[in-house]
Amino acid sequence: TDESVGVDRAGRLTPFPKPISVLQGSHSMFTQFDPGHTGLGAATELAWYLPASAIRTNSLAHVAEPRLLVFLRHERNAPLEVEDLEPAHAARLLLSDSADSERIGIDGLHIAAHLCARVRCVSMRYGALAPAISAIGTLNRDKPDRSPQVVPLRFNTEEAHRDTRDRRGFVEPVPALSGCIIDGSCLLRQPGDGSIVELDEAGSAWFQLFDGNTSTVDIIRDVASAEQLSIAEVEPLAQRMIEALLAAGVSRIAR
User: Fold this and answer.
1) How far is Cα 238 from Cα 229, in angstroms, rounded to an integer?
2) pTM, whole model, 2 decimals?
3) Which of 71, 109, 147, 240 is the most buried (most CB within 10 A)?
């Protein structure tokens, strides 16, 4: 279908989530479906909006379990290229192409995260249609060799703010930030505009260290000890990570 695909909270594909539009010029050909007479659907001056069940009671497909998610890109005369995507990256791409991700907020992020963790996710560049179709058929027969866990992120910045210590030198998540971790990578939803930020494994690890409860000095000392490095070696890396997280809008200097 060229219509949007509906995904329920369990990550299943639902049939005909969008009503079928019958434009005004076609009303005379389909008078038996007039919502004003049948009570099914809705009508405006420009169109009727009909549920599939208004056309035929057995017209709805069964709810389907997805197996494969393919991000297609057509380039004229390009050779076929298929690349596996990490679940967090696939979820961010999926949310960027969703009409409802802003409206349903963090629920949408969790639905996309769980979906991409369960199915194989690939990007495909193609020039000719036939090889692309054949490749998708082959991919669809394969089963994912792993099933990453999706872990919701919970932030305790309000608890940290009740601390009476001088909080200069602390870095913390921005207020009202939400998200999850998929296979070591953070997927975060920014407050305000609802934009999605994806952090790689290194950025995700540092982001979780900067929780607002531990000073930057202590974090650097602990990382240096764990990795058997000197503090002088870890300090520049920590500073770069702080700058990157601040620029991404997911962390801030504690007040």
Assistant:
1) 13
2) 0.76
3) 109
